[in-house]
Amino acid sequence: MIHSIKTVWKENNIFETDVDGHNVVIDLAEDAGGNNAGPRPKKLLLVAAAGCTGLDVVEILKKMRIDIRGFNVQIESEMTEEHPKQYTSLKVVYEFEGENLPKEKVERACRLSFENYCGVLAMYKKAVPVTYEVKIRNL
User: Fold this and answer.
1) Pfam families given for it (predicted)?
2) Is 91:75 a contact under the CB 8 Å cutoff?
3) What is the C-alpha separation between 8 and 23, in angstroms, rounded?
4) What is the C-alpha to C-alpha distance for residues 60 and 19, in angstroms, rounded to an integer?
5) Is pLDDT of 139 > 90?
6) Average per-residue pLDDT in the chain?
């Protein structure tokens, strides 16, 4: 299977990409010479990782018939100061809210995504240390 995208320069530092029929704009911050018309490319890498593993976890929990009220994925990353600026580590934090959530099943869903299913995290793990943590808040 081949995935292909085309990113088009619009003006100044603004680029646009059509991704599955959705327009994605990337740009630099104003203090870096951009117009702040969209997010920065490296942060979109974090969005991709959070979205990939989040989708996995939701689907796994649906199959387990676990009802969650709230769920978010936060990614904490460290980046070099020198060029080329790049991430040196990632920590994925899965945060859940619900009533009487079964800790073992929720943790298993996260572990399955983190270790077996999320292709974006799999690529990151080849480049930098990646860890995860699960937080559950029962309502």
Assistant:
1) OsmC
2) yes
3) 11
4) 25
5) no
6) 97
Q: Do 50 and 25 share a domain, yes or no?
A: no
**48 three-class SS:** helix
Give the chain's domain count.
2
Closest CA to 89 of 50, 128, 127: 128
Task: State whether 9 and 66 are in the same domain.
Answer: no
Note whether 127 and 60 are same-domain residues: yes
CATH of the domain at 50: 3.30.300.20
19 pLDDT above the threshold of 90: yes
Same domain, 113 and 76: yes
Structural domain boundaries enclosing 15: 1-39
Burial code (b: 16+ CB inside 10 Å, e: under 16) for 47-60 equals ebbbebbbebbeeb
